[in-house]
Protein backbone atom coordinates (compact mmCIF):
# COMPACT_ATOMS: atom_id res chain seq x y z
CA UNK A 1 0.00 0.00 0.00
CA UNK A 2 2.52 2.59 1.14
CA UNK A 3 5.20 1.54 -1.35
CA UNK A 4 2.93 2.43 -4.29
CA UNK A 5 1.80 5.84 -3.08
CA UNK A 6 3.80 7.80 -5.61
CA UNK A 7 4.18 5.35 -8.48
CA UNK A 8 1.09 6.50 -10.37
CA UNK A 9 2.36 9.47 -12.38
CA UNK A 10 -0.92 9.70 -14.30
CA UNK A 11 -2.77 10.52 -11.09
CA UNK A 12 -0.39 13.40 -10.47
CA UNK A 13 -0.81 14.63 -14.03
CA UNK A 14 -4.58 14.57 -13.72
CA UNK A 15 -4.73 16.83 -10.70
CA UNK A 16 -5.52 19.79 -12.93
CA UNK A 17 -4.12 23.24 -12.35
CA UNK A 18 -0.94 23.59 -10.35
CA UNK A 19 -1.41 24.07 -6.61
CA UNK A 20 -0.77 27.54 -5.22
CA UNK A 21 -1.24 28.56 -1.61
CA UNK A 22 -1.21 26.73 1.72
CA UNK A 23 -4.74 25.33 1.72
CA UNK A 24 -4.46 24.12 -1.87
CA UNK A 25 -1.31 22.14 -1.06
CA UNK A 26 -2.76 20.64 2.14
CA UNK A 27 -5.84 19.45 0.25
CA UNK A 28 -3.71 17.95 -2.53
CA UNK A 29 -1.38 16.13 -0.15
CA UNK A 30 -4.23 14.82 1.99
CA UNK A 31 -6.63 13.82 -0.76
CA UNK A 32 -4.45 12.74 -3.68
CA UNK A 33 -0.94 12.04 -2.49
CA UNK A 34 -0.50 11.08 1.15
CA UNK A 35 -3.77 9.66 2.54
CA UNK A 36 -2.28 6.27 3.43
CA UNK A 37 0.85 7.74 5.05
CA UNK A 38 -1.24 10.33 6.90
CA UNK A 39 -3.55 7.63 8.26
CA UNK A 40 -0.69 5.50 9.61
CA UNK A 41 1.16 8.47 11.09
CA UNK A 42 -2.05 9.75 12.73
CA UNK A 43 -2.94 6.38 14.19
CA UNK A 44 0.56 5.75 15.54
CA UNK A 45 0.71 9.26 16.99
CA UNK A 46 -2.72 8.86 18.62
CA UNK A 47 -1.51 5.78 20.52
CA UNK A 48 1.12 7.92 22.26
CA UNK A 49 -1.58 10.21 23.66
CA UNK A 50 -3.15 7.49 25.80
CA UNK A 51 -1.18 5.81 28.54
CA UNK A 52 -3.48 2.80 28.40
CA UNK A 53 -2.93 2.13 24.70
CA UNK A 54 -2.67 -1.63 24.36
CA UNK A 55 -0.30 -3.96 22.58
CA UNK A 56 -3.28 -5.09 20.48
CA UNK A 57 -4.09 -1.54 19.36
CA UNK A 58 -0.54 -0.96 18.14
CA UNK A 59 -0.39 -4.36 16.48
CA UNK A 60 -3.72 -3.70 14.72
CA UNK A 61 -2.40 -0.48 13.16
CA UNK A 62 0.74 -2.18 11.84
CA UNK A 63 -1.00 -5.36 10.70
CA UNK A 64 -3.24 -3.43 8.31
CA UNK A 65 -0.36 -3.51 5.81
CA UNK A 66 1.53 -6.77 5.32
CA UNK A 67 4.54 -4.99 3.83
CA UNK A 68 4.77 -2.64 6.79
CA UNK A 69 4.41 -5.55 9.22
CA UNK A 70 7.24 -7.55 7.63
CA UNK A 71 9.56 -4.55 7.63
CA UNK A 72 8.84 -3.72 11.26
CA UNK A 73 9.61 -7.34 12.21
CA UNK A 74 12.84 -7.32 10.18
CA UNK A 75 14.01 -4.15 11.89
CA UNK A 76 12.93 -5.41 15.32
CA UNK A 77 15.20 -8.43 14.74
CA UNK A 78 18.20 -6.25 13.86
CA UNK A 79 21.23 -5.98 16.14
CA UNK A 80 20.49 -2.28 16.66
CA UNK A 81 17.12 -2.93 18.32
CA UNK A 82 17.55 -6.53 19.44
CA UNK A 83 21.18 -7.11 20.49
CA UNK A 84 20.25 -10.36 22.27
CA UNK A 85 19.14 -11.68 18.85
CA UNK A 86 16.15 -13.51 20.32
CA UNK A 87 13.96 -14.29 17.33
CA UNK A 88 10.85 -12.11 16.98
CA UNK A 89 8.10 -13.45 14.73
CA UNK A 90 5.05 -11.38 15.73
CA UNK A 91 4.32 -7.71 16.37
CA UNK A 92 3.07 -8.58 19.86
CA UNK A 93 6.35 -10.31 20.66
CA UNK A 94 8.29 -7.34 19.30
CA UNK A 95 6.41 -4.99 21.62
CA UNK A 96 7.19 -7.21 24.61
CA UNK A 97 10.90 -7.59 23.82
CA UNK A 98 11.95 -4.18 22.52
CA UNK A 99 9.18 -1.99 23.91
CA UNK A 100 5.92 -0.35 22.85
CA UNK A 101 7.54 3.01 22.02
CA UNK A 102 10.38 1.46 20.02
CA UNK A 103 7.94 -0.49 17.86
CA UNK A 104 5.80 2.62 17.36
CA UNK A 105 8.91 4.59 16.35
CA UNK A 106 9.91 1.86 13.89
CA UNK A 107 6.42 1.88 12.38
CA UNK A 108 6.45 5.67 11.97
CA UNK A 109 9.92 5.67 10.40
CA UNK A 110 9.21 2.82 7.99
CA UNK A 111 5.97 4.49 6.93
CA UNK A 112 7.79 7.72 6.16
CA UNK A 113 10.55 5.99 4.18
CA UNK A 114 8.15 3.81 2.19
CA UNK A 115 5.69 6.63 1.63
CA UNK A 116 8.29 9.06 0.33
CA UNK A 117 10.95 6.87 -1.29
CA UNK A 118 8.54 4.55 -3.06
CA UNK A 119 9.45 5.43 -6.65
CA UNK A 120 12.52 7.14 -8.16
CA UNK A 121 12.91 9.73 -5.39
CA UNK A 122 14.44 13.11 -6.20
CA UNK A 123 17.88 13.98 -4.93
CA UNK A 124 16.38 16.79 -2.85
CA UNK A 125 14.04 14.35 -1.12
CA UNK A 126 16.78 11.84 -0.31
CA UNK A 127 19.09 14.57 1.00
CA UNK A 128 16.36 16.03 3.20
CA UNK A 129 15.24 12.64 4.50
CA UNK A 130 18.86 11.82 5.42
CA UNK A 131 19.06 15.15 7.27
CA UNK A 132 15.77 14.35 9.01
CA UNK A 133 17.02 11.02 10.37
CA UNK A 134 20.29 12.68 11.39
CA UNK A 135 18.36 15.45 13.17
CA UNK A 136 16.11 12.92 14.91
CA UNK A 137 19.04 10.97 16.37
CA UNK A 138 20.85 14.16 17.41
CA UNK A 139 17.71 15.48 19.14
CA UNK A 140 16.89 12.22 20.91
CA UNK A 141 20.41 11.75 22.26
CA UNK A 142 20.65 15.39 23.33
CA UNK A 143 17.31 15.16 25.14
CA UNK A 144 18.69 12.30 27.21
CA UNK A 145 20.82 14.85 29.10
CA UNK A 146 17.94 17.10 30.17
CA UNK A 147 14.73 15.04 30.08
CA UNK A 148 13.72 11.86 31.88
CA UNK A 149 11.19 10.79 29.23
CA UNK A 150 9.76 11.64 25.78
CA UNK A 151 12.92 10.39 23.98
CA UNK A 152 10.85 8.59 21.39
CA UNK A 153 8.50 11.55 20.85
CA UNK A 154 11.51 13.79 20.32
CA UNK A 155 12.93 11.37 17.74
CA UNK A 156 9.68 11.51 15.78
CA UNK A 157 9.44 15.31 16.13
CA UNK A 158 12.97 15.57 14.72
CA UNK A 159 12.11 13.15 11.92
CA UNK A 160 9.02 15.15 10.93
CA UNK A 161 10.56 18.60 11.52
CA UNK A 162 10.61 19.28 7.74
CA UNK A 163 7.40 17.38 6.99
CA UNK A 164 6.07 20.00 4.57
CA UNK A 165 9.24 20.13 2.51
CA UNK A 166 9.53 16.33 2.51
CA UNK A 167 5.96 16.02 1.26
CA UNK A 168 6.56 18.60 -1.49
CA UNK A 169 9.70 16.95 -2.87
CA UNK A 170 7.93 13.59 -2.73
CA UNK A 171 4.70 14.73 -4.38
CA UNK A 172 5.33 18.08 -6.07
CA UNK A 173 5.39 16.75 -9.62
CA UNK A 174 6.05 19.43 -12.25
CA UNK A 175 6.14 22.15 -9.60
CA UNK A 176 8.93 20.32 -7.80
CA UNK A 177 10.82 20.15 -11.12
CA UNK A 178 10.31 23.88 -11.57
CA UNK A 179 11.50 24.74 -8.06
CA UNK A 180 14.55 22.47 -8.39
CA UNK A 181 15.46 24.25 -11.63
CA UNK A 182 15.11 27.70 -10.03
CA UNK A 183 17.14 26.73 -6.95
CA UNK A 184 19.96 25.41 -9.13
CA UNK A 185 20.63 28.91 -10.42
CA UNK A 186 23.38 30.86 -8.61
CA UNK A 187 22.42 33.68 -6.25
CA UNK A 188 18.76 32.68 -5.94
CA UNK A 189 16.95 33.49 -2.68
CA UNK A 190 15.56 30.07 -1.75
CA UNK A 191 12.76 31.41 0.48
CA UNK A 192 11.51 33.74 -2.27
CA UNK A 193 11.67 30.92 -4.82
CA UNK A 194 9.63 28.59 -2.61
CA UNK A 195 7.05 31.32 -2.01
CA UNK A 196 6.78 31.99 -5.75
CA UNK A 197 6.29 28.36 -6.77
CA UNK A 198 4.14 27.13 -3.87
CA UNK A 199 2.41 30.31 -2.78
CA UNK A 200 3.44 29.48 0.78
CA UNK A 201 6.60 28.58 2.72
CA UNK A 202 7.84 25.12 3.65
CA UNK A 203 7.49 26.09 7.32
CA UNK A 204 3.84 27.05 6.86
CA UNK A 205 3.22 23.84 4.92
CA UNK A 206 4.72 21.82 7.76
CA UNK A 207 2.56 23.65 10.30
CA UNK A 208 -0.50 23.06 8.13
CA UNK A 209 0.15 19.31 7.83
CA UNK A 210 0.91 19.00 11.55
CA UNK A 211 -2.47 20.60 12.28
CA UNK A 212 -4.29 18.65 9.58
CA UNK A 213 -2.82 15.34 10.71
CA UNK A 214 -3.39 16.23 14.37
CA UNK A 215 0.24 15.63 15.34
CA UNK A 216 0.07 18.12 18.28
CA UNK A 217 2.26 18.19 21.36
CA UNK A 218 6.02 18.38 20.81
CA UNK A 219 5.91 18.72 17.01
CA UNK A 220 3.43 21.61 17.21
CA UNK A 221 5.46 23.27 19.96
CA UNK A 222 8.62 23.11 17.86
CA UNK A 223 7.10 25.31 15.16
CA UNK A 224 5.82 27.91 17.62
CA UNK A 225 8.51 30.46 18.48
CA UNK A 226 6.83 31.18 21.82
CA UNK A 227 7.97 27.75 23.05
CA UNK A 228 11.65 27.99 22.09
CA UNK A 229 12.81 27.69 25.73
CA UNK A 230 11.00 24.39 26.32
CA UNK A 231 13.73 21.70 26.73
CA UNK A 232 12.07 19.27 24.32
CA UNK A 233 11.62 22.02 21.73
CA UNK A 234 15.23 23.15 22.14
CA UNK A 235 16.47 19.58 21.64
CA UNK A 236 14.50 19.15 18.40
CA UNK A 237 15.49 22.58 17.09
CA UNK A 238 19.17 22.05 17.93
CA UNK A 239 19.12 18.60 16.36
CA UNK A 240 17.71 20.03 13.12
CA UNK A 241 20.24 22.88 13.01
CA UNK A 242 23.16 20.52 13.77
CA UNK A 243 22.14 18.19 10.94
CA UNK A 244 22.11 21.17 8.57
CA UNK A 245 25.39 22.69 9.81
CA UNK A 246 27.12 19.31 9.45
CA UNK A 247 26.81 19.73 5.68
CA UNK A 248 29.13 22.73 5.98
CA UNK A 249 31.76 20.68 7.84
CA UNK A 250 32.22 19.51 11.41
CA UNK A 251 34.67 22.36 12.00
CA UNK A 252 32.61 25.09 10.36
CA UNK A 253 31.88 28.26 12.38
CA UNK A 254 28.18 27.37 12.28
CA UNK A 255 28.87 23.96 13.85
CA UNK A 256 31.17 25.47 16.48
CA UNK A 257 28.41 27.84 17.59
CA UNK A 258 25.85 25.05 17.77
CA UNK A 259 28.19 22.78 19.75
CA UNK A 260 28.77 25.60 22.23
CA UNK A 261 25.00 26.11 22.48
CA UNK A 262 24.48 22.36 22.96
CA UNK A 263 27.16 22.28 25.67
CA UNK A 264 25.39 25.06 27.56
CA UNK A 265 22.03 23.36 27.12
CA UNK A 266 23.13 19.89 28.25
CA UNK A 267 25.64 20.95 30.91
CA UNK A 268 28.69 19.25 29.38
CA UNK A 269 31.98 20.62 28.08
CA UNK A 270 32.32 21.63 24.44
CA UNK A 271 34.62 18.65 23.85
CA UNK A 272 32.02 16.25 25.26
CA UNK A 273 29.30 17.96 23.24
CA UNK A 274 31.32 17.57 20.04
CA UNK A 275 31.98 13.91 20.82
CA UNK A 276 28.24 13.40 21.32
CA UNK A 277 27.44 15.14 18.03
CA UNK A 278 29.90 12.94 16.10
CA UNK A 279 28.68 9.78 17.84
CA UNK A 280 25.08 10.67 16.98
CA UNK A 281 26.02 11.20 13.33
CA UNK A 282 27.56 7.72 13.23
CA UNK A 283 24.47 6.30 14.94
CA UNK A 284 22.21 7.98 12.38
CA UNK A 285 24.06 6.14 9.59
CA UNK A 286 23.38 2.85 11.40
CA UNK A 287 19.73 3.75 11.95
CA UNK A 288 18.96 4.43 8.28
CA UNK A 289 20.79 1.23 7.32
CA UNK A 290 18.67 -0.67 9.84
CA UNK A 291 15.56 0.77 8.17
CA UNK A 292 16.72 -0.49 4.80
CA UNK A 293 17.69 2.92 3.44
CA UNK A 294 21.48 2.64 3.28
CA UNK A 295 21.55 5.15 0.42
CA UNK A 296 20.58 7.82 2.95
CA UNK A 297 23.56 6.98 5.15
CA UNK A 298 25.93 8.13 2.41
CA UNK A 299 24.30 11.57 2.60
CA UNK A 300 25.08 12.04 6.31
CA UNK A 301 28.49 13.74 6.72
CA UNK A 302 31.40 11.39 7.43
CA UNK A 303 33.07 11.47 10.85
CA UNK A 304 36.35 9.79 9.88
CA UNK A 305 38.71 10.32 12.89
CA UNK A 306 41.71 11.22 10.74
CA UNK A 307 39.76 13.93 8.91
CA UNK A 308 38.43 15.27 12.19
CA UNK A 309 41.96 15.31 13.65
CA UNK A 310 43.28 17.33 10.74
CA UNK A 311 40.39 19.77 11.01
CA UNK A 312 40.95 20.17 14.75
CA UNK A 313 44.64 20.92 14.23
CA UNK A 314 43.74 23.61 11.72
CA UNK A 315 41.20 25.02 14.16
CA UNK A 316 43.68 25.22 17.04
CA UNK A 317 45.88 27.45 14.91
CA UNK A 318 42.94 29.87 14.66
CA UNK A 319 42.08 29.90 18.38
CA UNK A 320 41.76 33.19 20.18
CA UNK A 321 45.11 34.16 21.71
CA UNK A 322 45.86 36.85 24.33
CA UNK A 323 46.96 40.14 22.78
CA UNK A 324 49.18 42.10 25.15
CA UNK A 325 48.87 45.33 23.16
CA UNK A 326 45.05 45.21 23.21
CA UNK A 327 45.10 44.32 26.91
CA UNK A 328 47.37 47.23 27.81
CA UNK A 329 45.38 49.69 25.68
CA UNK A 330 42.09 48.61 27.27
CA UNK A 331 43.51 49.00 30.78
CA UNK A 332 44.87 52.41 29.84
CA UNK A 333 41.50 53.47 28.39
CA UNK A 334 39.67 52.39 31.55
CA UNK A 335 42.23 54.26 33.67
CA UNK A 336 41.54 57.43 31.69
CA UNK A 337 37.78 56.95 32.03
CA UNK A 338 38.16 56.90 35.82
CA UNK A 339 39.45 60.45 35.54
CA UNK A 340 37.42 61.68 32.58
CA UNK A 341 34.25 59.82 33.49
CA UNK A 342 33.39 58.02 30.27
CA UNK A 343 29.84 56.91 29.44
CA UNK A 344 28.51 53.52 30.57
CA UNK A 345 28.50 52.02 27.05
CA UNK A 346 32.15 52.87 26.43
CA UNK A 347 33.17 51.55 29.84
CA UNK A 348 31.46 48.20 29.32
CA UNK A 349 32.64 47.83 25.71
CA UNK A 350 36.23 48.42 26.85
CA UNK A 351 35.81 45.87 29.66
CA UNK A 352 34.64 43.15 27.28
CA UNK A 353 37.21 43.98 24.62
CA UNK A 354 40.00 43.83 27.19
CA UNK A 355 38.86 40.49 28.61
CA UNK A 356 38.06 38.88 25.25
CA UNK A 357 40.62 40.20 22.77
CA UNK A 358 43.21 41.32 25.33
CA UNK A 359 43.24 38.53 27.92
CA UNK A 360 42.11 35.89 25.41
CA UNK A 361 39.04 34.78 27.40
CA UNK A 362 36.77 33.13 24.84
CA UNK A 363 33.36 33.84 26.38
CA UNK A 364 32.48 36.79 28.60
CA UNK A 365 29.13 37.56 30.23
CA UNK A 366 28.15 40.64 32.22
CA UNK A 367 24.90 40.37 34.18
CA UNK A 368 23.39 43.24 36.13
CA UNK A 369 20.82 43.44 38.89
CA UNK A 370 17.41 44.12 37.37
CA UNK A 371 13.71 44.22 38.24
CA UNK A 372 14.24 46.01 41.56
CA UNK A 373 17.34 43.93 42.28
CA UNK A 374 15.30 40.71 42.22
CA UNK A 375 17.28 39.00 39.46
CA UNK A 376 20.40 39.00 37.29
CA UNK A 377 19.93 39.73 33.59
CA UNK A 378 22.55 39.87 30.80
CA UNK A 379 23.82 43.31 29.84
CA UNK A 380 26.75 42.44 27.57
CA UNK A 381 28.10 39.21 26.05
CA UNK A 382 30.98 38.36 23.73
CA UNK A 383 32.29 35.10 22.26
CA UNK A 384 31.02 32.16 20.23
CA UNK A 385 27.56 30.92 21.13
CA UNK A 386 26.91 33.67 23.69
CA UNK A 387 24.13 35.55 21.89
CA UNK A 388 21.56 33.02 23.15
CA UNK A 389 22.41 34.07 26.71
CA UNK A 390 20.82 37.46 26.05
CA UNK A 391 17.46 35.71 25.69
CA UNK A 392 17.54 32.88 28.19
CA UNK A 393 19.99 33.70 30.99
CA UNK A 394 18.06 34.93 34.05
CA UNK A 395 18.93 34.10 37.66
CA UNK A 396 17.16 35.09 40.88
CA UNK A 397 19.32 37.47 42.90
CA UNK A 398 18.19 36.10 46.26
CA UNK A 399 17.29 32.44 46.56
CA UNK A 400 17.78 31.11 50.09
CA UNK A 401 16.60 27.59 49.23
CA UNK A 402 19.20 27.25 46.46
CA UNK A 403 22.02 29.85 46.71
CA UNK A 404 24.22 30.15 43.64
CA UNK A 405 27.69 31.40 42.74
CA UNK A 406 26.54 34.70 41.19
CA UNK A 407 24.79 35.91 44.33
CA UNK A 408 27.65 34.53 46.46
CA UNK A 409 30.41 36.56 44.79
CA UNK A 410 28.32 39.73 44.85
CA UNK A 411 27.51 39.28 48.52
CA UNK A 412 31.11 38.46 49.46
CA UNK A 413 32.63 41.01 47.07
CA UNK A 414 35.48 38.75 45.96
CA UNK A 415 36.58 37.44 42.54
CA UNK A 416 36.84 33.65 42.23
CA UNK A 417 38.59 31.15 39.96
CA UNK A 418 36.19 28.23 39.88
CA UNK A 419 37.31 24.73 38.91
CA UNK A 420 40.61 24.78 40.81
CA UNK A 421 41.26 23.10 44.20
CA UNK A 422 41.03 26.38 46.13
CA UNK A 423 37.37 26.76 45.13
CA UNK A 424 36.22 23.13 45.23
CA UNK A 425 34.28 23.80 48.44
CA UNK A 426 32.03 26.17 46.49
CA UNK A 427 31.19 23.76 43.64
CA UNK A 428 27.68 23.18 44.97
CA UNK A 429 26.93 26.85 44.26
CA UNK A 430 27.34 26.14 40.54
CA UNK A 431 23.72 25.00 40.29
CA UNK A 432 22.08 22.92 37.57
CA UNK A 433 20.43 25.95 35.88
CA UNK A 434 23.87 27.60 35.66
CA UNK A 435 25.51 24.46 34.24
CA UNK A 436 22.72 24.05 31.70
CA UNK A 437 23.20 27.59 30.42
CA UNK A 438 26.97 27.96 30.70
CA UNK A 439 28.31 24.39 30.64
CA UNK A 440 30.84 22.78 32.96
CA UNK A 441 34.50 23.49 33.61
CA UNK A 442 36.76 26.31 34.78
CA UNK A 443 35.57 29.91 34.87
CA UNK A 444 36.32 33.27 36.43
CA UNK A 445 33.62 35.23 38.24
CA UNK A 446 33.75 38.58 40.03
CA UNK A 447 31.42 41.21 41.49
CA UNK A 448 30.98 44.49 39.67
CA UNK A 449 30.69 47.33 42.17
CA UNK A 450 30.40 51.11 41.87
CA UNK A 451 31.98 51.98 45.22
CA UNK A 452 29.69 50.26 47.70
CA UNK A 453 26.78 49.95 45.24
CA UNK A 454 26.15 46.51 43.77
CA UNK A 455 25.90 46.59 39.97
CA UNK A 456 26.23 42.98 38.81
CA UNK A 457 28.62 40.13 38.10
CA UNK A 458 31.25 39.45 35.41
CA UNK A 459 31.77 35.86 34.19
CA UNK A 460 34.43 34.55 31.78
CA UNK A 461 35.63 31.16 30.49
CA UNK A 462 37.43 29.46 27.59
CA UNK A 463 35.04 26.59 26.93
CA UNK A 464 34.89 27.12 23.18
CA UNK A 465 38.29 25.41 22.88
CA UNK A 466 38.27 23.71 26.27
CA UNK A 467 41.66 25.19 27.18
CA UNK A 468 42.54 25.65 30.83
CA UNK A 469 42.53 29.17 32.21
CA UNK A 470 45.83 30.67 33.40
CA UNK A 471 47.05 32.68 36.36
CA UNK A 472 47.94 35.59 34.08
CA UNK A 473 44.38 35.66 32.78
CA UNK A 474 42.97 35.67 36.32
CA UNK A 475 45.19 38.59 37.30
CA UNK A 476 43.99 40.50 34.22
CA UNK A 477 40.37 39.55 34.95
CA UNK A 478 40.62 40.95 38.48
CA UNK A 479 42.30 44.13 37.26
CA UNK A 480 39.67 44.79 34.60
CA UNK A 481 36.70 44.26 36.95
CA UNK A 482 38.25 46.48 39.60
CA UNK A 483 38.99 49.29 37.12
CA UNK A 484 35.52 49.04 35.63
CA UNK A 485 34.05 49.42 39.13
CA UNK A 486 36.11 52.54 39.67
CA UNK A 487 34.90 53.95 36.33
CA UNK A 488 31.29 53.36 37.31
CA UNK A 489 31.83 54.84 40.75
CA UNK A 490 33.36 57.97 39.19
CA UNK A 491 30.44 58.20 36.78
CA UNK A 492 27.91 57.98 39.63
CA UNK A 493 29.59 60.97 41.32
CA UNK A 494 29.42 63.08 38.19
CA UNK A 495 27.67 66.33 38.85
UniProtKB/TrEMBL annotation:
Domain HDOD, chain residue ranges per copy: 34-229
Gene3D superfamilies in the cross-refs: 3.30.450.40, Hypothetical protein af1432 (1.10.3210.10)
PANTHER family: PTHR33525, RIBONUCLEASE Y (PTHR33525:SF3)
Protein name per UniProt: HDOD domain-containing protein
Source species taxonomy: Bacteria, Pseudomonadati, Pseudomonadota, Gammaproteobacteria, Pseudomonadales
